[in-house]
Task: inverse folding
């Protein structure tokens, strides 16, 4: 199998592409490197996964005529595991609420506009400066603010937890696996590979932060041999190819 992995000015763009390279090499794949500006002339296909940043992989799939299904940060079937109120509003509505009540809200762009701004908590007018240049009618994802003491990423592959990696907060505080396993069972229409990020609150509750598609996914220290096939299998699922890593 041939795999194309993005580099930036001749170097690995980040630990994710380096880890993917390690995993594919160890699994016997043939790896070709490319720069983003070379993507348009690259001879890739449904049978040759493209690995890189979110925008790069999205562009590659688009060139193959593949539309990536939208994935909510918290799918409706997993809402009971979120442990907090989540809703969608316009930036105008968020700005009005902050001016009226001052109650803190965590806001982030919708998946289709993930690069619009970085998710952050807004509690005062000055917290809105980052989004000041964005149209007021722009929809954003909102959620109640929860004090998180630790955060972990669960890697889901073929319906199983392939790994669980700490990425923020106190690594000594580990999630309760009961809701993790229950959520995995409830998420019936999940992709062949994805992630579920979990947080633990100060009072010990384990809740789902968000899920992410695996076509371009942060590895967070997952073994490269486990990480690489997740990316490949999701690519094949999206391209409806019969090839496998």
Result:
């Amino acid at each position: 199998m041939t795999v194309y992995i993005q580099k930036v000015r001749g170097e690995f763009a980040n630990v994710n592409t380096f880890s993917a390279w390690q995993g594919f090499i160890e699994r016997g794949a043939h790896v070709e490197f490319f720069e983003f500006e070379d993507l348009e002339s690259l001879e890739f296909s449904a049978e040759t996964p493209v690995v890189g940043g979110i925008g790069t992989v999205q562009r590659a799939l688009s060139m193959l005529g593949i539309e990536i299904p939208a994935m909510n940060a918290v799918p409706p079937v997993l809402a009971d595991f979120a442990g907090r109120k989540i809703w969608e509003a316009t930036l105008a509505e968020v700005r009005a609420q902050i001016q009226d009540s001052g109650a803190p809200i965590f806001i982030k762009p919708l998946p289709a506009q993930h690069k619009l701004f970085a998710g952050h908590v807004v509690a005062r007018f000055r917290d809105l400066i980052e989004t000041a240049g964005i149209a007021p009618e722009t929809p954003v994802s909102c959620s109640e603010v929860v004090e998180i003491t630790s955060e972990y990423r669960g890697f889901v592959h073929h319906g199983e937890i392939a790994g669980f990696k700490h990425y923020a907060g106190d690594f000594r505080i580990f999630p309760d696996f009961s809701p993790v396993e229950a959520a995995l069972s409830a998420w019936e229409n999940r992709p062949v590979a994805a992630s579920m990020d979990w947080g633990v609150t100060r009072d010990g509750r384990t809740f789902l932060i968000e899920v992410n598609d695996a076509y371009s996914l942060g590895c967070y220290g997952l073994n490269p041999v486990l990480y690489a096939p997740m990316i490949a299998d999701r690519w094949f699922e999206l391209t409806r190819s019969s090839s496998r890593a």
Notes: Residues 224-239 form the longest helix (16 residues). Residues 85-144 form a domain with the Dna Ligase; domain 1 fold (CATH 3.30.1490).
